[in-house]
């Protein structure tokens, strides 16, 4: 009888420890605890990081900023000029001189996958528009877009103006850009042409970074172009005294 009681107690003790043993075995170096990513509580989608300016503040939609080289050694800011003898200036160029901030731009975004926001977030599809005085004839020639392959430059596609704000679809697909961070610490970014499929489900668009290329018509300055050597930039808040 004593032997039976002892065996019963031993079995009970072993069974009571089983859940602990099984639970503990799941926490090993090969099976770490995975913490959830930051999400929007309303739709359970990841919240993208805010794009920051040189003061560490989020870029505000509709506000004015300079797009400037991340290193003053590689030139200054971006500006609008006329290199191709068109009715309106539509060439997007970077100053060769590091002290030149260029012309201010505004950012606009429309992303149906996230809640409306007043800030620009990394990898959002955005429109970029020069915020400069213009003539009535050229009032619609300040929004950035990707140009058609250039017949004189071995198929190079320059960044030009003449794009459209909003209205996703095949006609406006060339007007959408993204901002992506290129470093973990400093607020250095690159521009990228890679529109999301929801903007035009039937469109096929190849993705490419926005880089620079020397132009024989602009001594020292460089045109923005699609290539695999991204132009590292920072965003500086425009001050009225800059005008």
From TrEMBL:
Which region is the signal sequence?
A: 1-24
A GO term for molecular function: endopeptidase inhibitor activity
Which taxonomic lineage is given here? Answer: Eukaryota, Viridiplantae, Streptophyta, Embryophyta, Tracheophyta
Name the keywords, alphabetized: Protease inhibitor, Signal
Quote the protein name from its UniProt record.
Stigma expressed protein
Q: Which Pfam family, just one, is annotated for this protein? A: Kunitz_legume
Q: Which family does it belong to?
A: Belongs to the protease inhibitor I3 (leguminous Kunitz-type inhibitor) family.
SMART domains given for it?
A: STI
Which portions of this protein are annotated as coiled-coil regions?
Answer: none
């Amino acid at each position: 009888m004593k032997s039976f009681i002892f065996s019963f107690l031993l079995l009970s003790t072993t069974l009571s420890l089983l859940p602990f043993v099984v639970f503990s075995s799941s926490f090993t170096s090969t099976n770490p605890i995975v913490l959830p990513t930051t999400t929007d509580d309303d739709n359970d989608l990841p919240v993208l990081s805010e794009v920051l300016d040189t003061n560490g503040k989020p870029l505000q939609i509709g506000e004015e900023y300079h797009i400037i080289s991340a290193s003053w050694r590689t030139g200054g800011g971006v500006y609008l000029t006329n290199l191709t003898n068109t009715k309106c200036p539509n060439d997007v160029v970077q100053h060769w001189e590091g002290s030149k901030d260029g012309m201010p731009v505004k950012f606009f975004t429309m992303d149906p996958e996230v809640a409306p926001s007043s800030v620009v977030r990394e990898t959002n599809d955005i429109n970029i528009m020069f915020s400069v005085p213009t003539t009535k004839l050229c009032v619609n020639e300040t929004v950035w877009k990707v140009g058609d392959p250039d017949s004189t430059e071995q198929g190079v596609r320059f960044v030009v103006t003449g794009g459209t704000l909003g209205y996703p679809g095949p006609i406006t697909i060339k007007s959408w850009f993204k901002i992506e961070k290129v470093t973990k610490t400093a607020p250095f970014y690159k521009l990228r042409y890679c529109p999301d499929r929801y903007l035009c489900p039937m469109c096929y668009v190849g993705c490419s970074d926005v880089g620079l290329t020397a132009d024989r018509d602009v001594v020292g300055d460089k045109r923005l172009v699609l290539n695999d050597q991204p132009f590292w930039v920072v965003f500086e808040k425009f001050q009225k005294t800059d005008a």
